[in-house]
Amino acid sequence: MADENERIHLETDEARAGSTPGMTRYILVASLLLIIAIFAAILLS
After folding, report:
1. What is the CA radius of gyration of the chain?
2. Where are the membrane-spanning stretches (predicted)?
3. Phi/psi zone of residue 3: left (φ > 0), alpha (ψ -120 to 50 degrees), beta?
4. CA torsion, points 27, 33, 38, 41, in degrees to nearest 10?
5. What are the CA-CA distances from residue 9 to residues 4, 6, 27 (Å)?
6. How many CB atoms neighbour CB 43 within 10 A?
7. In angstroms, rounded to a whole number, what is the distance separating the alpha carbons of residues 22 and 29?
8. Does residue 43 register a pLDDT over 90?
């Protein structure tokens, strides 16, 4: 039986148990540009 206080060492990929396709940065950039365009439209109208 494993000791409950023993540390578990895993590599980053093993600890995540998922993939990171990198879509987040594109969504953030698109959202930022959209917000800037909306604010510009509000200020110029």
Report:
1. 22
2. 26-44
3. beta
4. -160
5. 14, 10, 33
6. 7
7. 12
8. yes
List the structure tokens of 9: 């060492």
How far, in Å, CA of 25 to CA of 29, rounded? 6
Six-digit token string for 22: 């990198």
Indicate the pTM of the whole model.
0.54
Question: In this predicted model, what pLDDT tens digit does every residue of 28-39 receive, in sequence order?
Answer: 999 999 999 999
Which amino acid would we find at residue 14?
E
**Residue the block writes with tokens 């980053």:** 12
Structure-token pair, residue 32: 């930022």
Residue 35, both tokens: 């917000």
